[in-house]
Every structure is written in C-alpha cells, then in structure tokens.
C-alpha cells in the first residue's frame, strides 16, 4: 500500500529485472483484470511486473469528486517512485488507462522506455463533434445512474462522467511524445459494438496515432471484444515481449 495526496493505493509486484512492466487496466477495473497476462509475462520475460488498483477500485481508497486522468497519473507516479521504479518502464495501458498513459508520458517521458496501448482511449478519437456526440448519448445513462442507490461502482462511473465534454476537448489537444515508442493494439470489435460510425472513428484514431511517428506500429486483435486482455491475452503478451526486446535491459 502506498499513499498519495492523502489516499491509499494498492500495488502488486512480481520481482524481476528491468525493464519493469506496468499494467494499467481500463475504467471500472482493478489489478485482477490482468490475471491472464501478468503471470505469463513475468515468467516469459523475467521482468518485474507491477499491477495496481486505481483510486476507487479494488483495495484502493475512494476519492470524492470528479475523476481526472491527471490525478490518476499522479497516483501512478507516486506508486512507482515509492517502489523505486522511475526508469526503463514498459507501460501497458488498456482503454481508459490510455488517457492516464498520455498524461503520464508527457510528464515523465524519461521514465518510460516504451508502451503497449491496448484498445486505448487516444486523443485523436475525441474530435469536437465526436465528443459532443458522446456527451449527448451518455446523458440518459448518467441521469438513470443518479437515480439509483449509490454503490462504489456507480459513484466511480459518475466521477468519470463528470465534466466529460470539456475534459475530452482538452485531452484531444494532447500528443504522445515522439521519443517514446508504442505498439497500439486495436480490437476487431472496438468499444462501439452497436455503432459502426463510432467504431470506424476509433480504428481511424488508432491508425492516426501510429502514423504520427516511425517508432509506433499497429496490431489488430482479431476475434476480440474491447476486452483484449481477456479474449486474446496472447496478443497482449506477444506485443509486450516485442516491446521488451525493443527497449532492452
């Protein structure tokens, strides 16, 4: 357990050598999400493997107020600092954690040797029109959640939805540092299983991201939902192994 800004966060460490592999799960998920990836990647690479529960998830403390990727990036930085892991890190980020990764690598580019972005939420996706569309589409769901008895899960969902439009308008302006190599894995289904237009834009955003620098490449996880670490852990493990080989020890 580590402490940052008055709240506690649970980190789980499998000892090993550098590069350290840090696994960050998507929204509403905790460290257990990586159960099909973490043991195999630790055994196959010999690297130190770190997972953690973000605030409001798993064994970590709840934090009141809106959820912000910048705060989550601060939590991750605090945890890695206390663990002594501030260089030669391969950061593996799924879905919402792509937003955390983008803020993190901009603040700590020299900590990260490479990244694997697993159907990650990337800035390129959040055009003004798409963000406005998502805000409008989510209004009914958010209103319904507010009427329900509050649980830890619903509180976290509402925290992530708070101020969604302005947050993602700002996120759209960010870019990934050219110095940090990345493998982007996109699922064949994307998160938008009922909206072909949104699914296409999601895939275009992934392609736009990898096309922006020569040290990035795209991998398609065939026959997979958005939950690639569950449906196709082999694809994630192979990408991590490739990145570990690329960055060296």
UniProtKB/TrEMBL annotation:
Domain (AB hydrolase-1): residue spans on this chain: 21-238
Stretches assigned to coiled coil: none
GO molecular function: hydrolase activity
Keyword Hydrolase: yes
Keywords, sorted A to Z: Hydrolase
Protein name, as recorded: Alpha/beta hydrolase
Organism of derivation: Streptantibioticus ferralitis
